[in-house]
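>> received
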Amino acid sequence: MLPSELTRILLIDDHHLFNDGLKSLLDEQPGLHVCGQVFNPTEALPAIQRTSPHLILLDANLQGTNGIDLARTILSSFALVRILMLTMYNQPKLVEEARRAGLHGYLLKDATTAELMRGIRAVLEGGTYFDPNLTPQTPPAGSTFDDDFARRLNLTFREVEIIRLIRQGLNNEQIAEHLHVSYETVKTHRKNIHFKLGISKITDLIQFAIRHGL
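>> returned
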């Protein structure tokens, strides 16, 4: 019999080798239990009803079914479940579609085990997590959202960028590596961000980012 405090994870991926390998990996992690594996998207909703997962790891492309459309269907029926998309597609348009659909994270399949666990923890704790290696979306010509937003709040473009990365769950060291700057530079930027916004807690900064669509 499984301890009740284990986090239940449902895997939805039609690639059997990947699905089975992921199950083996996650079942070795303390506090996690793969409560079910779905290989056919038509079996997803019954499996969720049967296993009551806390978290779903979902592929983007399932035997001709759009994983994001499936996620919308899942969230409309099971509003409390958390969904982390795990896919090989590093496409800004798809990432943005996943955000708009209400998914809680987007991780590439070539992520390390440590990266996967960071994403799982962030999503389970009520946050979001988007792979730091995702290709950034190029804003359409004439788009001034970042400029206007930054100007109104007296933020620099780099500070807005760091707020986005904080929302994705990255710490100072990871942000420094992602932006190719020093750890001390990130600390200075963060100090300035908190001062300019009048925010002292990281949770408040994340809520700020969510409210403003960062």
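>> Strands lie at 7-12, 32-38, 55-58, 61-62, 65-66, 82-87, 105-108, 129-130.
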